[in-house]
Specification:
Length: 393
């Protein structure tokens, strides 16, 4: 089943119990009955991770039980940052070099309670009527078991972190086991709320102030020479090398990375999720110059990874046009909101996304270093200065 042995299962009268699974084939048959709130805790999504997670990532699936009844499900990911050749090549500042040195030497083995590939609360979900704080205590014990398992193999987990929670959700982490750990706030999650009165893209355009209507018109004019196509699985497979090179160009030029997707990731996602996973390619003639991906998550549209040629992106305002295309599709298909996630905060706010502050908990295994975590974290989390825009009348 797994190699966790005796530390696999934890139980106290005052707490829930847990089982840690390493393969989707081991999951309880009723697992997906609890994954209603988000597909990112479903066996279907875990299958994608199983087949195409980043090379430096190991995923663990955690079942939370009351007696023998499955009442909660969770995801944990172990990241080995030493396997990365680069954390991101964009910034060459001294502070960035210090941060990279810290990661390489003191924080390269990271255990995440949650999903490091996504933004938002994709850590766990619990059946109605059960105690969130008791569930967090159980996840803390599960994390301890995972760390013990690594220690038995001679691998020391440096950093443990719980991510991403809003201001209400983070209150559940006010438990004795975590009261000495550092609570942090990261870059916000950019959420675009679709007005219930918008039935078409034109309704959205009409709601913009003149300055941002002009921005919309300018961007659309620039994109008039591009062809946008929804790609099938066969096309994704045929263009896999071009797709990966475009993804890698964007990823490597980000200020910071803790993983890189494998080459087959988008193919596996499309094979698994079919019409729930949308892949749009942007072409000049037959040449793919950019792409973006979307995931249908109930009534929420989740933006996923993208890629583009930076030199062409600027000329055609491609990134901005991608945002407008995502908004248009989501309005036309009656979604309630779009999760635009982190990065490019200002341009996302210029199309109407609002920042949602996100919180987490982080600790270092070394007690001395952990006492300075509030200072160390400033080097671990890149700072972003940006101006929020309001494009609406």
């Amino acid at each position: 089943m797994t190699n966790f042995g005796e530390i696999l299962f934890f139980n106290l009268d005052s707490a829930y119990s847990f089982i840690i699974y390493e393969n989707t084939s081991e999951l309880p048959v009723n697992w997906d009955e609890l994954a209603i709130s988000t597909i990112f805790l479903s066996t279907q999504y875990f299958t994608v991770l199983e087949k195409s997670s980043p090379e430096n990532m190991i995923c663990y699936f955690i079942g939370i039980f009351e007696n023998e009844k499955l009442i909660g499900i969770a995801l944990s990911q172990f990241l080995d940052l030493k396997k990365l050749e680069s954390f991101g090549d964009r910034d060459k500042r001294t502070k960035t070099k210090i941060r990279n040195f810290i990661f390489k030497n003191f924080a390269s083995q990271v255990l995440v309670l949650g999903n490091n590939m996504l933004t938002g609360q994709n850590s766990y979900t619990l059946m109605n009527g059960f105690d969130d704080k008791k569930a967090i205590q159980t996840l803390y014990k599960a994390a301890s078991s995972i760390k013990t398992n690594f220690a038995n193999k001679g691998i020391k987990v440096h950093i443990t972190t719980y991510k991403d929670f809003n201001k209400e959700e983070i209150k559940n982490f006010d438990i004795p086991e975590l009261n000495k750990e550092h609570q942090f706030s990261t870059q916000p999650n950019m959420i675009f709320t679709i007005d219930e009165n918008w039935k078409t893209e034109q309704n959205y355009i009409d709601s913009l102030s003149k300055k941002y209507r002009d921005q919309y018109k300018r961007a659309r004019k620039k994109a008039s020479l591009l062809e946008k196509r929804k790609l099938s699985l066969a096309e994704i497979i045929r263009l896999e090398d071009e797709i990966y090179n475009l993804y890698l160009h964007v990823a490597q030029n980000a200020p910071f990375n803790t993983f890189f997707l494998p080459r087959n990731h988008f193919k596996v996602f499309k094979e698994t999720f079919k019409d729930k996973f949308l892949f749009y390619g942007y072409f000049i003639g037959d040449k793919l110059i950019g792409f973006n991906t979307l995931i249908k998550n109930g009534n929420v549209m989740e933006t996923y990874f993208l890629g583009y040629d930076e030199s062409i992106q600027r000329e055609y305002m491609l990134y901005l046009n991608m945002l407008y295309d995502m908004i248009a599709y989501s309005i036309n298909k009656n979604f309630d909101e779009i999760v635009f996630a982190r990065t490019a905060l200002e341009i996302k706010s210029s199309v109407g996304a609002k920042p949602q502050k996100m919180y987490g908990i982080i600790s270092h295994t070394n007690p001395f270093l952990n006492s300075f975590m509030s200072r160390i974290f400033k080097y671990l989390e890149p700072e972003t200065t940006w101006q929020q825009r309001n494009p609406f009348k």
